[in-house]
Amino acid sequence: MKINKLILVFLSFIHFFVFISCNEDVKKTKPTDTPKSGTIDISVDESFEPVMKEQITMYEASNPGTKINAHYKSEADCLKDYFKDSINRLIIITRGLKPNEEKYMFDSLGFNPAWNEIATDAIAVIINKNNTDTFFSLDNLKQRLIGKFKREQTLVFDGLNRTSTVRFIQDSILKGNNFDTSVVKAVKNSDEVFDYIATHQNAIGFVGINRIGNPEDAKQLALLKKVKIALIQCDLCDKKPFILPTQQSILNRRYPLVRGLYYISKENYTGLGSGFIAFLKYERGQLIFRRSYLGPIMNFNVRNVNLNRNPEKK
After folding, report:
1. Are residues 238 and 269 in the same domain?
2. Sign for the pseudo-dihedral over CA of 44, 125, 183, 172
3. Residue of 242, 202, 247, 207 lying closest to 224 (CA atoms)
4. Per DSSP, which regions of the chain are E strands?
């Protein structure tokens, strides 16, 4: 009997310590951030660094207890962070998740990840200021990219294999064809695209309009002084006009190289990531996108701004 009582007491102690230990583990893993407090690491497509820095600055100013550490990277590296990095809970890129990616995340997390569009953007085609070849159709660009037309020209991207710009051009213009790597050049980032085009008359560059679309931004105006923006033919329009990537032509999809901007989150509670997403989706964040001349998903009156292709001329 005494032995049985000793065993019972021993088992009770074991159960008690296991219970305490489990509670401590729960405390350790319990989220500590909220929409108004805490710190979060996110990865952002580097093409959108200007507007996302503005979004984060405004959110943190409105919520002084928050800190959003944004890491600006290629789209492929953002996705790598999302799938492999346990610290990263949110990425901002130019596509949503594919069905197989959603399934993978559901199997890994036990719940469906959240993603949706928060704005629209466009790819601008830029050329040297002295280049007189300023009108392009999509087929014309395709023939150049695959090396079938004007092989003496260099076509410049911010990286060949890992950026959202490269992927978008592959999907929307090449459509299964491959780049001719003898005429296509990769540089490190968008700023280097501008520098290359500014110093090479016979070159064509591809950048996100977020880098040069805001005529109220002094840095973007300085970049625009280095180059010109080409016009792209609208195949779906009557009379097939050639169009600049303005906010209006992005929203009405008359400009053909339009893409979405998406958030992808694996936060399943109301934390700092969820708070920041809500900020981006609703009025204040949408007004920042609008002021940056991206296309907001909220229905605001669109400013019909004349994009100055030669800002040095008054």
Report:
1. no
2. positive
3. 207
4. 38-45, 66-73, 90-93, 114-128, 135-136, 154-157, 184-186, 203-208, 227-229, 231-233, 242-243, 258-265, 295-296
Let me know if residue 83 belongs to a domain.
Answer: yes
Check residue 303 and give its pLDDT: 53
Q: Is residue 269 part of a domain?
A: yes
Instruction: Using DSSP bridges, classify how beta strands 135-136 and 90-93 pair: parallel, antiparallel or unpaired.
Output: unpaired
Q: What is the pLDDT of residue 161?
A: 65
Domain membership of residue 206 as a residue range: 122-257
Of 288, 290, 297, residue with least CA distance to 55: 288
Q: How far apart are CA 157 and CA 124, in angstroms?
A: 11
Domain membership of residue 115 (yes or no) is: yes
Say what the pLDDT of residue 28 is.
Answer: 43
Angle between helix axes 272-281 and 49-62 (nearest 10 degrees) is 110
Number of structural domains in the chain: 2
pLDDT along the chain (314 residues), means of 10: 50 46 46 94 94 97 97 94 91 96 93 95 95 95 95 89 88 92 91 94 93 80 89 92 93 94 96 98 95 87 54 45
Same domain, 149 and 215: yes
How far is Cα 68 from Cα 56, in angstroms, rounded to an integer? Answer: 7
* Shared-domain flag, residues 164 and 241: yes
The number of angstroms, rounded, from the C-alpha of 84 to the middle of its chain's C-alpha atoms is 19
Same domain, 253 and 126: yes
Check whether residue 170 and residue 89 sit in a common domain. no
